Amino acid sequence: MSDDEDATDGCPMHGGGYGGNGDDQLSYGSYLKVPELLSLQQTETDPAAHDELLFITIHQAYELWFKQIIYELLSIRQLLDKGDIYESTRLFDRVLTIEELLVDQIHILETMRPRDFLAFRSALQPASGFQSIQFREVEFLSGIGRPGILEHVHLTDEERQRLEQRIEEPSLREGLYQLLADKGYDVAVPERLEPFEGEDRERTITALAEIYGNPREHQDVYSLIEKFVDHDQNLLLWRFHHVRVVERLISTKQGTGGSPGVEYLESTLDKRAFPLLWEARGELDDETYFGLDPLGDDLNPEHPT
Asked: What pTM value is reported for the model?
């Protein structure tokens, strides 16, 4: 095989490089805008601190994945409105796989020593991860957050408009409970980012406990709501691992954006979009399910199900 043939073998887009063949033919590089993409990692230090490129690359990769997550969550929200449990569950599997990648990716930053980060940290002022608009969108779409948080973040007019739109739109939390209500489950549908309270909370937990207590009878719904729990858990894990990485790098130093740093990040670790899905399983009675075979057979006649 010639060198020219070998250069294109096995690649779905021929072109022999980022620039293609010098004409307008689509190539791998031109389709993915690789030259433009690789030009975006611009350091603030001069001469550039060695680990600043790593820091920029990781966070830009996060923003690309956040964009994909938002795209999928918006699609899931539409599917919930249509009552499509199967496709909602399928797309949520994709979101969860991406989130697991993001949790793992944060640990690449641990290959930096504290002094390596300090070599460029001051150049980041006053930028901060707290300002990630897309991560806020993920939170608002999921049903986490409060409108007042926008008062504490520096935003462009376009960014503020985007986040205000997310706050006004129905969240996934509303979509989930509306779907359950439409399927005949006695649940309340929350208002935007408002919590469940009083009688609405109690009857919703009771309905969810019925699903968790009888997963075979509610298989499709059970599988779907567990995807929401997985999503909540992945966001919790991402925050936890992020806090620990930051603590390893700067300990008790103030954050670059002026926040208390680790102290502030610690305060975010209890955020949950779907707290009732977690609480409902605590309503299951030990005695009711004692002796139940995971395959569905009752192993203890004295405690029939």
From this structure: 0.84
DSSP string computed for 183-198: TT-------TTPPP-H
Specify whether the CB–CB gap between 146 and 177 falls below 8 A. Answer: no
Helix/strand/coil for 35: helix
CA angle (65 as vertex; 137, 47 as ends), nearest 5? 105
Quick check: helix, strand or coil at residue 9? coil
Angle of CA points 234, 238, 239, to nearest 5°: 120
CATH (residue range 53-272): 1.20.58.480
The pLDDT tens digits of the residues spanning 208-251 come to 999 999 999 999 999 999 999 999 999 999 988 888 888 888 87
CA distance 234 to 141: 15
CA 140 from centroid of its chain's CA atoms: 11
- Domain ranges for the chain, please list them: 3-38, 53-272
What are the helix (H) ranges across 33-84?
Answer: 34-38, 52-81
User: In the chain, which ranges are continuous DSSP H helix?
Assistant: 3-8, 28-32, 34-38, 52-81, 85-105, 114-121, 133-142, 157-168, 172-182, 198-213, 219-250, 262-267, 275-280, 286-289
